[in-house]
Amino acid sequence: MLSFLSIFFFAIAIGLTIYFVIKTTNSSSNTKLSEKNLKEISGSNISQGVIVLMEYNPMQFILKGIKPKIEINSRPYDVKWGANKIDLDSGEYNLYCFFPYMGMDKCCEGSIDFILKENEVIKMKYTVPLTIGQKGSLRILTE
Q1: pTM for the full model?
Q2: What is the distance between the alpha carbons of residues 76 and 22, in angstroms, rounded to a whole number?
Q3: For residue 42, is it left (φ>0), alpha (ψ between -120 and 50) or beta?
Q4: In the sheet that 91-101 helps form, which strands lie side by side, from edge to edge?
């Protein structure tokens, strides 16, 4: 009886894994979130500052309930998954992205230095890696 239950739960775990792998490799499901966020970015009404796109892989659905964090020059900002608009003055900045996860205060950290000029809007993208032990990817988007 015990071995039957073990095999049954193992089969369910394998089935769910295959389902989520197929779902995440489907190009239409991956681009829908990005296209939505990119439309929000391009339609933004910010005159100077940064727009940070915070994304995770749909296979990491548990992150939907976790609030990401951004610090710019050690000052915390209230953000969400998706597009975030932050007004800044011109100057030199260090942008630092992370999120708390399973007892860790700062998980999947990503950091970038940039210089913001007068009347400039810089668009950036933070992407959570597939495994929690890695650094997050943070890059400036070019148009």
Answers
A1: 0.68
A2: 37
A3: alpha
A4: 75-78, 69-72, 91-101, 104-116
- The first and second tokens of residue 52, run together, are 């940070």
* Identity of residue 74: S
Task: Assess contact for 22 and 58: CB atoms under 8 A.
Answer: no
43-46: list long-range contacts, CB under 8 Å, 24+ apart.
44/83, 44/85, 44/121, 46/85, 46/87, 46/121
pLDDT in tens, 72-87: 998 998 899 888 999 9
Tokens of 37: 């966020």
Condensed to tens digits (0 to 9), the pLDDT of residues 92-103 reads 999 999 888 887
What are 88's two structure tokens? 């800044």
Query: Do residues 30 and 58 lie in contact, with contact meaning Cβ atoms separated by under 8 Å?
Result: yes
